[in-house]
Amino acid sequence: MPLTPPPFDPELATVLDSLKEVLTPGLTLEEIDGLRDGPAVAALADIDFTMDGAFDIEHRTVPGPEDAPNIPLLICRPTKPAPAHPRPVIYYVHGGGMVIGDNRSGVTVPLGWARELDAVVVSVGYRLAPEHPHPAPIEDVYAGLRWTAEHAAELGADTERIVIAGTSAGGGLAAALALLARDRQGPHIIGQLLMRPMLDDRNDTPSGHQMTGVGIWDRTANETGWTALLGASRGGPDVSPYAAPARAENLAGLPPAFLDVGSAETFRDEVVSHADRIWQAGGTAELHVWPGGFHSFAGFAPQAQLSRSALAAQLDWLRRLLGESEG
Asked: CA-CA distance, 27 to 281, in Å (whole number)?
């Protein structure tokens, strides 16, 4: 018997209805190239990443993983006079289902936080699947974090106050990055902000089944993204936790986490489970499940009341985290 999806927030349902001509729930491997050439990617060229002069913007290419190409970083530094102490860093990983996007995608959200918190933003570009399957994306993201930590002084930033953040696929990569930095004893991370993260390649949760053919990024699209990243190993017994953090057996020793997700989206159950497993391991996590939220609702409808609440909760968590680290 099919599972009934939870209702969308009425205000968001109106937005979702207006998007149905340009955004469909599913995505197949054959549609990836068309999506990469679509209007959403083209629109990135028109965004003012200076936020009306609040940031100096630098595009820099830095060394990638060993025997791999260099990686692009988008570095955004506040233009206001430097404070007495180095600024915190928000290291951002973009979304796109592992198959689309670049380091400009979604970066206006962390820039909004950084403008309020006087922080540096470093947004990392990573190789995309299926051309570059696991471990290429996570190794690129880790190499960018290492460079950022090693060059923090050059950026006017504090190597001991790095927060990692990511959206959707980037949220999953940020969660994997926290695991990898812990296990490799890599750069110090003070927090992980995971927005509707893509965590579980098995794609078999009740929320995944509920949202089949509904909303944005449904179970079909999710299978496409994970298959692009993992190929035939998707859903099998040997998937690395650095590809799919839901596979991690040990979530102890991780930096404090903020996780949020909509109640009406594919990722709901895996995000709730990840927070629960952090608590079970003795860790710190703050979880928000936004009632009636579809996938990435705050990005598609930032003026909606639920979106404003979600964005405010993210900023509040960062403010508390950075206040504690400063003290």
From this structure: 35
Query: 283 phi and psi, to 5 degrees?
Result: -95, -175
Collapse the DSSP code of 259 into the 3-class scheme (helix H, G, I; strand E, B; otherwise coil) and give the result: strand
Dihedral (CA of 249, 255, 256, 260) sign:
negative
Using alpha carbons, select from 148, 194, 137, 205 the residue that is nearest to residue 171: 194
Q: Could you report the per-residue pLDDT of 35-82, keeping only the tens digit for each? A: 898 877 777 777 899 999 999 999 999 999 999 999 999 999 999 999
In which order are the strands placed within the sheet that holds 71-78?
A: 55-62, 71-78, 120-124, 87-93, 157-167, 191-195, 257-262, 285-290
Collapsing DSSP states into helix, strand and coil, what is residue 165? strand
- SS3 state at 248: coil
Q: Three-state SS for 162?
A: strand
Is the model's pTM score more than 0.85?
yes
CB atoms under 10 Å from CB of 278, counted, come to 21
| Number of Cβ atoms within 10 Å of the Cβ of 237 | 6
What is the distance between the alpha carbons of residues 113 and 28, in angstroms, rounded to a whole number? 34
Q: Are 96 and 32 in contact (CB under 8 A)?
A: no
Backbone torsions φ then ψ of 288, nearest 5 degrees:
-125, 125
Q: C-alpha dihedral over 16, 216, 126, 259, to 10 degrees? A: 90
In degrees, rounded to 5, the angle at the alpha carbon of residue 145 between the alpha carbons of residues 68 and 199 is 90
